[in-house]
Automatic annotation (TrEMBL):
GO terms for molecular function: oxidoreductase activity. This is CO dehydrogenase flavoprotein C-terminal domain-containing protein. Keywords: FAD, Flavoprotein, Oxidoreductase. InterPro entries: CO_DH_flav_C, CO_DH_flav_C_dom_sf, Diverse_Substr_Oxidored. SMART domains: CO_deh_flav_C. Residues 41-144 form the CO dehydrogenase flavoprotein C-terminal domain.
């Protein structure tokens, strides 16, 4: 029996595809590091209705805050690209900025420039998803910041 450890980002191989070979491999566990005191994360999901398992948009944000300044930021989103994607330019923008809504919304706008929105009968129209996307990022960053600073989420 061979044990192989991979980052979660290495498991995605394309739309509806995984790097896990289901004929000879099995995922046995996922390691999630504990949050530090000045760190917070949040997940936002927009869906058409609860009966449908596929989200229109999903965003996860993680921030580290010191003296109300963001020292680290991570934003991952989907399904607005061929696979889950890091909003690297938005993450860079946030570092050194104050943890406030105007910066969160700007990060959402920056991320929107790198997302590939397309219309889908299941996930919604391109126009709607592109308008809501920065709002989802803003909400995720706002809630992650509240957790990082010890404010009520």
């Amino acid at each position: 029996m061979q044990h192989q450890e991979k980052a979660l980002t290495q498991l995605y191989a394309g739309v509806a595809k995984s790097t896990v070979d289901s004929s000879s491999q099995i995922l046995t566990h996922i390691k999630i590091p504990l949050s530090k005191k000045s760190e917070g994360s949040n997940y936002q999901r927009m869906e058409q209705r609860k009966a449908l398992a596929l989200p229109m948009l999903s965003v996860v944000a993680k921030v580290v805050i010191d003296n109300n300044l963001i020292t680290e930021a991570s934003i991952v989103y989907g399904p607005v690209s061929p696979g889950p994607k890091h909003a690297e330019e938005a993450e860079k923008f946030l570092c050194g900025k104050k943890a406030e809504d105007k910066n969160f919304l700007e990060a959402g706008k920056i991320a929107s420039q790198h997302a590939t929105f397309r219309s889908s009968p299941v996930r919604g129209s391109q126009e709607f998803r592109s308008q809501v996307f920065p709002v989802c990022i803003t909400r995720a960053l706002r809630e992650a910041s509240k957790i990082a600073t010890g404010k009520k989420a």
